[in-house]
């Protein structure tokens, strides 16, 4: 742009600065920021927010505060985003006292603080075990009419669980529900773990199922460390792991791309005489498909047959998605036919997977044939169906047909998303005309 004598606007620079910040390429952000000064491109409040965030990431908190003063000298009023960014930076470095000072200063200057601002400080106080101050700030937050987030409630629930005060912990859970805030997996993990400790403290011996509930919860919230600690605890106490225990471990190993360990665990299960079930096989197949090990994933389907474990639509959909990612759409189609022969009904995910696979390769005739089959089976096209078809048509430079599909999807009550429009803009010849017609 600059070499073509086109002066970038502040918004353009902000987009680039934001991208560099998200990618942690802070040095590149500073080079661009210096370029803005050289070209006399004005900084907006958004520019300052991004650069304060960059400074916080670099641990330069003093300079971040100086930037705050620099904004005000230039007559740019800080926003709640500015406040949240700098408070988060100080809390992250354990400097909660400084964060409180900024909180008070911003409040005094009329900045409308939000629930996220309060949540950051409450979390920081709890980490420093300043629980009374955290509770007091929470009460002040409620009095201002702000609605706490699930994360803030979880912070307080964790605090009371660690103190052994189950009544207060469950009280906060009830308050969440009453205010229409859905408890998360972490909420229940905290409460279940405290109940678990309560049982042990009263001489009650936890069973395998008790451990499995906890292990599964930690795996689902991707807290592998706690999941493995609990597994080791089971073994020390002489409690035999069950299929559910093993399945949870396979799930978390798969998510961490540790498929060799997942396979070793699976072999150990077989050696111990434990018969894997459908859920365990699906977890292992999903891991191998996600990591591009399609040969191993397909071999597991044959192992299921040998062990008389019947696959379901999840098994086949996972395998089909893995094959389509590798461009092996014909093999995926064979799996769909195999599903039907086994009496397993394909669902809309099965058909969308094939449509997407054909569209990526530009095989639009085959993609539309699958769509017709999908319709004949009583499945209505979804946003994913249309996006895949539109992207494929645009890839083949068939922009007119893509626009027809856009009109069809809107007439069916399906709202296009960014992906729909990006595909269309890439694939049509007269972009300006298309954008002018955007409203209609």
TrEMBL record:
The keyword Repeat applies. It comes from the Eukaryota. Pfam families: PPR_2 (PF13041). GO terms for molecular function: mRNA binding. Keywords: Repeat. Gene3D superfamilies: Tetratricopeptide repeat domain (1.25.40.10). PPR repeats lie at residues 44-78, 79-113, 114-148, 149-183, 207-241, 242-276, 277-311, 312-346, 347-381, 382-416. InterPro entries: PPR_rpt, TPR-like_helical_dom_sf. PROSITE patterns: PPR (PS51375). The keyword Oxidoreductase does not apply. Belongs to the PPR family. P subfamily. This is Putative tetratricopeptide-like helical domain-containing protein. The lineage of its organism: Eukaryota, Viridiplantae, Streptophyta, Embryophyta, Tracheophyta.
């Amino acid at each position: 742009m600059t070499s073509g004598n086109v002066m970038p606007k502040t918004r353009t620079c902000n987009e680039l600065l934001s991208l560099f910040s998200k990618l942690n390429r802070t040095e590149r952000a500073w080079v661009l920021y210096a370029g803005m000064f050289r070209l006399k491109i004005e900084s907006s409040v958004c520019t300052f927010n991004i650069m304060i965030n960059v400074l916080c990431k670099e641990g330069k908190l003093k300079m971040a505060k100086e930037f705050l003063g620099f904004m005000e000298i230039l007559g740019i009023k800080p926003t709640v985003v500015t406040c949240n960014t700098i408070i988060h930076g100080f809390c992250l470095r354990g400097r909660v006292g400084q964060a409180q000072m900024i909180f008070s200063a911003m409040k005094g200057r009329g900045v409308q603080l939000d629930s996220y601002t309060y949540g950051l400080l409450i979390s920081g106080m709890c980490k420093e075990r300043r629980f009374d101050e955290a509770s007091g700030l929470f009460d002040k937050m409620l009095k201002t009419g702000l609605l706490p987030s699930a994360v803030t409630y979880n912070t307080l629930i964790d605090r009371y669980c660690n103190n052994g005060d189950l009544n207060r912990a469950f009280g906060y859970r009830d308050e969440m529900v009453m205010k229409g805030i859905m408890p998360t997996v972490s909420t229940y993990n905290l409460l279940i773990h405290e109940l678990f400790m309560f049982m042990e403290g009263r001489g009650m011996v936890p069973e395998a199922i008790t451990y499995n509930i906890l292990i599964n919860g930690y795996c689902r919230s991707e807290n592998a460390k706690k999941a493995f600690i609990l597994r080791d605890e089971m073994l020390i106490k002489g409690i035999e792991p069950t299929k559910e225990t093993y399945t949870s471990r396979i799930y978390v190993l798969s998510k961490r791309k540790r498929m060799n360990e997942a396979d070793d665990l699976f072999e150990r299960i077989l050696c111990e005489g434990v018969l894997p079930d459908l859920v365990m096989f699906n977890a292992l197949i999903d891991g191998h498909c996600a990591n591009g090990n399609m040969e191993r994933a397909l071999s597991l389907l044959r192992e299921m047959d040998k062990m008389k474990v019947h696959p379901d639509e999840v098994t086949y959909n996972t395998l089909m998605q893995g094959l389509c990612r590798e461009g092996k759409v014909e093999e995926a189609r064979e799996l769909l036919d195999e599903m039907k022969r086994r009496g397993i009904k394909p669902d809309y995910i099965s058909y969308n997977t094939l449509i997407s696979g054909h569209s990526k390769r530009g095989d639009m005739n085959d993609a539309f044939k699958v769509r017709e089959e999908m319709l004949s089976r009583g499945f209505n096209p979804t946003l994913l169906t249309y996006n895949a078809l539109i992207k494929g048509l645009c890839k083949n430079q068939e922009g007119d047909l893509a626009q027809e599909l856009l009109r069809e999807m809107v007439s069916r009550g399906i709202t296009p998303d960014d992906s729909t429009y990006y595909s269309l803009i890439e694939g049509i010849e007269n972009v300006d005309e298309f954008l002018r017609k955007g409203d209609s």
